[in-house]
Amino acid sequence: MDQHSHFAQPASRASRAGYRRAVLASILILAFSISASHAANAQRNPGDILVGEDDDNYYYMDAAAYRGSAAQKFGVQFCRAKLATMADQTAIHELGFDLDAQRFEMFEDVAREQKTALEHKVFDALLDQGLESADALLSSAKSLNPWNVNNAVEMLRAKGFGNAAIIAALRKIALQKDKPAMLAAYREFVDVVKGAKEGWTTRSEIAKDPENSDLRMMVGALKVMQGNPELGLAVTTAEFGESLLYLAYVSGQVGDLEQASNDKLARLARLSQRLRVDVDDTRTSKKAWQKSTGYASARPVCGG
After folding, report:
1. How far apart, in Å, are the Cα atoms of 64 and each of 61, 76, 257, 298, 302?
2. Which pLDDT value is given to residue 68?
3. Residues 77, 285 contacting (CB under 8 angstroms)
4. What is the pLDDT of residues 238-287, one digit of tens each?
5. Quick check: 301 pLDDT over 60?
């Protein structure tokens, strides 16, 4: 045997050994697949229908027993809620927000402190944007309507807003007779709000106000000042806050919320609230279906 052949021999043996291992692995995988297929097929008896699935298996039940049962009712509810959720996602996507469906299930397990912090971040951004918008308005040829400013004050008082300095600064804006004086008074108001906002951001103040009501009321007051009392009142509610919190969590697009127009913000809040209801319906109907069928890891099959 020459030197060339001597060094070629070990490589050839390694190649054959690798080939044998690959063949053996393929046989084992095929055998496992056939076994799994037989196991899945074994679940199905004559007269059975497909009712559920998970990532690995299909699940069957006797057709006569399933039809008209509580399990079938829960399955229908699940499918309807799932379709509604998909429609909600599409409508929100058309407004520029892409949702992470995996976060739907995760949201309910997020700690209350984390939810409060995220909601605070959302309304803090909305407040900054609102303050800037009003400043731009006053810096142009337009001015704030004193009637709207007074309405904002009355709304805050009716909601129990406790910052007297902010209310006094708002009243000063409404008392001004010309645009330069109003702009100067408004900028004083902005300084007062920013000072209060720094306090609202501290951990101790957030703990005292876990629903971020002061922030929500200030954002609402700005909307009223800008001539949108309907949205202003809506923004102050806990439901509106929860809706924007949910959207911020499942989309991660807090910055886009900040830039949304009043009309878009109102639509997003309504759609987000509907989405959360539909997601909750999907989850509860699936759990009820799982309990009724005994298929704890499966989900109902929709369509067909």
Report:
1. 9, 16, 51, 20, 18
2. 95
3. yes
4. 999 999 999 999 999 988 888 898 899 999 999 999 999 999 999 999 99
5. yes
**DSSP string of 218-276?**
HHHHHHHHTT-HHHHHHHTSHHHHHHHHHHHHHH--HHHHHH--HHHHHHHHHHHHHHH
Residues 6+ apart with CB under 8 A from 3: none
Number of H helices, E strands in the chain: 14, 3
CA Rg, the chain, in Å?
Answer: 30
Is 269:237 a contact under the CB 8 Å cutoff?
no
- The strand pair at 58-62 and 299-300 is best described as unpaired
Could you tell me the residue ranges of all domains in the chain? 3-73, 99-252
What single-letter DSSP state applies at residue 178?
Answer: S
pTM over 0.85: no
